[in-house]
Automatic annotation (TrEMBL):
InterPro entries named in the record: RpiB_LacA_LacB (IPR003500), RpiB_LacA_LacB_sf (IPR036569), SPI_LacAB/RpiB (IPR051812)
Segments for region (Disordered): 132-157
Taxonomic lineage of the native organism: Bacteria, Pseudomonadati, Pseudomonadota, Betaproteobacteria, Neisseriales
Gene Ontology MF term list: isomerase activity
Protein name per its UniProtKB record: RpiB/LacA/LacB family sugar-phosphate isomerase
Keyword Cell membrane annotated: no
Stated family: Belongs to the LacAB/RpiB family.
Composition bias type Basic and acidic residues, residue spans: 136-157
The keyword Magnesium appears for this protein: no
Source organism of this protein record: Chromobacterium haemolyticum
Alphabetical keyword list: Isomerase
Length: 157
């Protein structure tokens, strides 16, 4: 399991805490930025990491911003990605067990460091059940494959 972790400036401190936490567990984790508190666009962070998951460079990612919302929206623009915003351990477990989420997003202004550690650990330890959830994920994949790609003007490309 190779995990990417990244953030915008709003979540820099939480990223540093979670990075050390994951490293202390002996997990293979790559710090994908940001590396300071300068303003950054979450789409410029989330989309390349989501693309790298699809390409197989990373198996999972933890993306952080002020609320977790922007990172989730941006990452979910990449076909094949399932990014779930999680602010509690139950949602983190279900993100993996029911939705096979490759990415979780957290908000540094919403959860504290200790809860964030528990959320990430719960998600990483959970396993996808398949079962009744598999047809739901299959339907999402079918939709993604059937949908025309759009250019910047909203026209099919």
């Amino acid at each position: 399991m190779h995990i990417a972790i990244a953030c915008d400036e709003a979540a820099f401190d939480l990223k540093e805490i979670l990075l050390r936490h994951l490293q202390a567990q002996g997990r293979q984790v790559s710090d994908c930025g940001v590396y300071d508190r300068q303003p950054a666009l979450y789409a410029d962070i989330a989309i390349p990491i989501a693309e790298q998951i699809i390409a197989g460079r990373y198996s999972h990612a933890v993306l952080l911003c002020g609320t977790g919302i922007g990172m989730a929206i941006a990452a979910n623009k990449v076909p094949g990605i399932r990014a779930a915003q999680c602010h509690d351990t139950y949602s983190a477990e279900r993100a993996k067990r029911s939705n096979d989420a490759q990415i979780i997003t957290l908000g540094a202004r919403v959860v504290g460091p200790e809860l964030a550690k528990r959320i990430v650990d719960t998600w990483l330890e959970a396993r996808f059940d398949g079962g009744a959830s598999q047809p739901k994920l299959d339907r999402i994949s079918q939709y993604e494959q059937a949908s025309p790609r759009r250019d910047g003007d909203g026209e099919p490309s």
